[in-house]
Specification:
Strand order of the largest sheet: 2-3-1-4
Order of helices and strands: HHHEHEEHE
Radius of gyration: 20 Å
Structural class: alpha+beta
Shape: elongated
Helix content: 25-40%
Distance between the termini: 15 Å
CATH superfamily of the largest domain: Lrp/AsnC effector binding domain/regulation of amino acid metabolism (RAM) domain
Oligomer: single chain
Mean pLDDT: 96
CATH topology of the largest domain: Alpha-Beta Plaits
Largest sheet: 4 strands, antiparallel
Strand content: 15-25%
Low-confidence stretches: none
Number of domains: 2
């Protein structure tokens, strides 16, 4: 892994806080030329430090009011079964994140739906139709105290 210098780290911090800031504004804050900022961003992208640049949408404004964390246990742990589950579950637009886990469950999903009825429809007609699922245990978010996308650097 390439070592990041202090300028790279600060550039990543600034972009995580607000990726819409212009390269000129970044160059002013970093005391570097615009060309240097452009090159550093291009390099950080090519090295995989910056995976993509996105807008973070307020889920409530787009009617995704219910967040569920669903733990999924499969009945078979063969590589093909695990891979097949991953390939299918990521196709569902309600699934925002999918993590393979250690412990009592194989996967944890973060699911965003309009409401409990929409979650029920998702569960019945999508998630529960996948093969090899033994158990799904879901937890519903009551309130959100912290939701951050920026990693400390």
């Amino acid at each position: 892994m390439t070592e990041l210098d202090p300028t790279d780290k600060e550039l990543l911090r600034l972009l995580q806080a607000d990726a819409s800031v212009t390269h000129k504004q970044l160059s002013d804050r970093l005391y570097k030329s615009v060309a240097t900022v452009n090159e550093r961003i291009r390099r950080l992208k090519s090295l995989g430090y910056i995976k993509r640049i996105v807008a973070i949408v307020d889920r409530r404004k787009i009617d995704r009011n219910l967040i569920a964390f669903s733990q999924v246990l499969l009945n078979d742990h063969a590589a093909d079964t695990l891979k097949g589950f991953e390939e299918e579950v990521v196709k569902f637009p309600e699934v925002m994140e999918c993590f393979q886990m250690t412990g009592s469950f194989d996967f944890v999903l973060r699911i965003a739906t309009r409401d409990m009825d929409a979650y029920h429809e998702f569960y019945r007609h999508k998630l529960a139709t996948l093969p090899n699922i033994t158990t799904v245990q879901s937890f519903f978010v009551l309130s959100e105290t912290k939701s951050d996308t920026a990693y400390p650097i």
